[in-house]
Amino acid sequence: MPSDNLREFIEGLARKAGQHARQTRERNALVTQYKQGQELVTQADVEVDEMIRAAILARFPDHAILSEELSPDLSLAGLEGPLWVVDPIDGTVNYAYGHSQSAVSIAYLESGVAKAGVVYNPFSEELFAAEAGHGATLNGRPVHCREPESLRMSLVATGFPYHKDSISELCQRLEAVLQHCRDLRRLGSAALDICWVACGRLDAYYETVSPWDLAAARLIALEAGASCGHFGRVPPGFSEALYSEHVLITAPGIYQPLREILAQTV
Ligand code: IPD
Ligand code: CA
Ligand code: CA
């Protein structure tokens, strides 16, 4: 696929989808409900997913799509062929509460390897984009991660799942990290957390999430010079780009020390 066309397509799609999310909220037209008992979802999450799906299939009818609302079939992550991975709105709780930290995330992969990714925040009008081998940009300008002088001087972000079963383990992990870093942030959008590592607004991010939270932003971080891996084991046969347990993404100099601390909590 010619890369200029691909980039133009994904960026245009993310902007259009983001505008729909923003306008729906500005019109006070949010309809909220719950999935799996406790997880907040709005009608806009589903509409944006439909919009992105229709545009991808109109252009690439034989491509597969893994998306949070309409096709959250995790077995798709193992596909060899072309795969799109979509989070229609990452940061839904922020979105529903009127906060501005939420984004549309779209990634394109071949054989489990990310080729292009876009994360667009329609509230700040910031569009993070990357293509494999071509660097990462924020609104068209190249971005690079920071070079913190030490883990002790680093700002670290994380998040928490909707279900509460693992809260005590996560609090122990949080305490271990907080002992060794400057401070922690819980901003509410994993995709933006990772893009913020890419552009130097954060030094590190760790969490267990889902493939759609990660796919586009991880490529953006990699292309911005971040170290991207896991603080637990990635089982054989899983794509590094989509394996979303124990994700760790950092400015390069602090990856190993932070990984050692986190690995002791798994
Ligand atoms: C959530 C956000 C949040 C993270 C959760 C995700 P959603 O995604 O990325 O920051 O902590 O684990 O599920 O539900 O808003 O798309
Ligand atoms: Ca998400
Ligand atoms: Ca979502």
What can you tell me about this protein's structure?
- With 266 residues, the protein is α+β, with helices and mostly antiparallel strands.
- The protein has two domains: 139 residues, Fructose-1,6-Bisphosphatase, Chain A, domain 1 (2-Layer Sandwich); 113 residues, D-Maltodextrin-Binding Protein, domain 2 (3-Layer(aba) Sandwich), CATH 3.40.190.80.
- The chain is 33% helix and 25% strand.
- It contains seven helices and 14 strands.
- The strands form three sheets. It has a seven-stranded mixed β-sheet, sandwiched between helices.
- The chain is globular and about 50 Å long.
- 45% of the residues are buried.
- The structure holds D-MYO-inositol-1-phosphate and calcium ion (2 copies).
- One calcium ion (CA) binds next to strand 4.
